[in-house]
Amino acid sequence: MGKIIKEDISISILKANEAIAKELKDFFKERNIFTVNIISSPGAGKTTLLEKMLSYFEKDKVLVLVGDIETERDAERIRKKGYKSYQIVTGGACHLEAVMIKEAIKLIPEGIEYLFIENVGNLVCPASYDLGENLRISMISTPEGDDKILKYPKAFLTSDVLIINKIDLLPHIPFDINKVIEEAKKIKKDIKIFKISALKGEGVEEVVKFVKEKKESSE
Fold first, then answer.
1. Which of 15, 20, 173, 201 sits most deeply, having the most CB atoms within 10 A of its CB?
2. pTM of the model
3. Would you give the end-to-end CA distance of the chain in angstroms?
4. Other CB atoms closer than 10 Å to residue 7's CB: what's the count?
5. What is the 3-state secondary structure (H, E, C) of the chain?
6. Would you call 47 exposed, middle or buried from its count of C-beta atoms within 10 A (0-12, 13-18, 19+)?
7. Are 192 and 183 in contact (CB under 8 A)?
8. Domain map of the chain by residue range?
9. Closest to 144 measured CA to CA, from 42, 39, 51, 37
10. Which of 62, 65, 45, 60 is nearest to 117 (CA)?
11. Domain 2-218 belongs to what topology?
12. In this predicted model, what pLDDT tens digit does every residue of 42-68 receive, in sequence order?
C-alpha cells in the first residue's frame, strides 16, 4: 500500500509539473524567447560552457537561470562576464521544477531572446521535469567515465543534444568516445552530438551555431 501511495504522489507531482511547463512554453512562445535547459552531473562543465557560449550573444538579449542546492557562485561567475543571471537556490532539491522557473520568469526583462537554464548537477531527477524549454542539452565529461549513457538513459532519451566535454583530456584518461557515441545513438538515434573542450573553447562555436539555427527554425 505504501508503495502505491508513493507512486501516486510521484505521478501527481509530474502531472502538475507538466501543466506549468505548458504555461511556460506558451509564455516563451509569446515573448519569442528560445529556452535551453542544460543538465549534467556536478563538475561536468555547465557553467564553463555557458561562460564561453555567452560571448557569441548580445548581452541585452540573453539571460541565464542557474539552479543549485546552495550558494550563488555559478550565477556570480556569469554576472562577472557582464551577462544577466539569476540564481535559483533549491535548498536541497536535486533538480529544477517548472514552478521554480515560473517564479523566476517574473524577473525576465524585455528584449530577452535566449534563456539558458543551468539545471542542478544531476543526471537523474532533471530528466523527468519539463521546464518548458525548446531545447534540452545533456552533457557528460571525459573524467566521469564512458559508462554514463546506459547507466542514466532517460537523461539522454529526453535530450535533443549530447555534449561530450573535456575532450582535451582524452590522451590522459581511459574514455572510449566512440563507445559513448554509439550507445547514445542506440538510446536516441537522432540525438545531436558535439565533442568540445569548454575550457579551451574548442567546439563551442558549433554548439552556439546549432542553438541559433534552432531558434530561427522555431520562429
1. 20
2. 0.91
3. 48
4. 10
5. CHHHHHHHHHHHHHHHHHHHHHHHHHHHHHHCCEEEEEEECCCCCHHHHHHHHHCCCCHHHEEEEEEECCCCHHHHHHHHCCCEEEEEECCCCCCCCHHHHHHHHHHCCCCCCEEEEECCCCCCHHHHCCCCCCEEEEEEEHHHCCCHHHHCHHHHHCCCEEEEECHHHHHHCCCCHHHHHHHHHHHCCCCEEEECECCCCECHHHHHHHHHHHHHHHC
6. buried
7. no
8. 2-218
9. 42
10. 65
11. Rossmann fold (3.40.50)
12. 999 999 999 999 999 999 999 999 998
Which amino acid, one-letter code, is at 50? L
Q: Give the strands of the sheet with 34-40, arranged side by side.
A: 84-89, 62-68, 114-118, 34-40, 135-141, 161-165, 192-195
pLDDT in tens, 168-202: 999 999 999 999 999 999 999 999 999 999 999 99
